[in-house]
Amino acid sequence: MKQISRRSFLKIFGTGTVAAAAATTIGCKNNNEGTRMQDEPAEGKMTYRITPTTKDKVSVLGYGMMRLPTVGQGKAKNGKRQTGDEEIDQNMVNKQINYALKHGLNYFDTAPVYCKGQSERATGIALKRHPRNSYYIATKLSNFGAYTREESIEMFNNSLKELQTTYIDYYLLHAIGGRDDDHEPMELFNARFIDNGMLDYCLQKKKEGTIRNLGFSYHGDIEVFNHALKLHDNGKAKWDFVQIEMNYLDWHWANEITEENTDACYLYNELKKRGIPAIVMEPLLGGRLANLPDPVVAKLKSKAPERSVASWAFRYCTTYDNVLTALSGMTYMEHLKDNLRNVCPLEPLTDKEIKWLEGPIAKEIMSYKTIPCNDCKYCMPCPYGIDIPGIFVHYNHLLMEGHAIDNIKDPNYKKYRKEYLVTYDRAVPKVRQADHCIGCGQCMPKCPQQIMIPEELQRVGKFVEKLKRNE
Fold first, then answer.
1. Which residue of 68, 80, 142, 419 pairs with 174 in a disulfide if CB–CB is 3.0 to 4.6 A?
2. CA–CA distance, 276 with 53 (Å, rounded to integer)
3. Of all residues in the chain, what percent carry a pLDDT higher than 70?
């Protein structure tokens, strides 16, 4: 099969949120303390939702297979931050999937382009050891940059091969709404799925049973989302589910985070009124809702000291009754266990708690003016070696901790200044720091959050230089 390059995959994401069916808890602070966090998740207590069309009994927590454990995960090399290029740890993937299935999690979401093309294979190896009727596989038509009919069909058949299955339970048109260098969003949607006949091909495969449920994941231009729903309304395509980004920050603030994003309240309600279940990606907004500013953490802990900060985000999404499942990229076993505790069984939030998260809590988080980087690494590799996500994660951590080192008169200025500079050098090698950015802009079309990366790197670079001059 012709391999789709990482560059081709990422070209379309200049105006939308990339398929990150792998919302993660990576980067969590030590917020999982408390007696409840020490308990093993209960077996036989999983909460399920029913897919209207096929009556599948789907676990309300789904496993996102985009960020899989790697050999040597979490161990720094020469004291420096790892890049995520390490070999997948198949034994750990097997172990975590065993544990997930044992506790009733039965929905596994992957794609041909995840983990540099290795996710489907790793997922297939892990799941093949279990009865086929004990789990549901979701994968995608990720025909970015290679969307002829022949190439797209080859991708579909290769997914079956890599996943070691004869049918796909949930198949998605991957990341509708993006653009590339040659097409605007609607043009690209037509090129990838309509003009080449691939939507009709998928509908035929559904009739044959090779695809059991057909849907799409949405990232970007709202015109394309609305167009896809019109296809459903007029009978040209019947969507069994749709995957959207949804969390308590994106519910009302998505457009504030990134200008062209669409608030989740609109996406969710458009699906609900049509009876199309939503599958949620980014319930933790790339881990940011598990790694909150200390004052926000204190407020969440004051209401539920025994629960993790991340649990609020998962319970928020899954409280909405039209959510079929919420996906999490659980790289570590402790993330899997924590998430399972929240849904075995699910304890829904009250209306008052939902309004509190969507309102005052979301507003306070937004006030910190962090760089909206989810550490997805889609902007990497930088042709000039800059560790873009490492720089942004380190800078955001400073803001989250509330360290006032922008004011030389602050009594803690000297302490925090030194701490930032030392940890910056440890986290990011000097030759990969912000001041080495030449502003080429090659990273920008790849960013799912549409960050003006060169401008933000310049801002961080100037901030660091100011600290070095002790101004």
1. 142
2. 9
3. 86
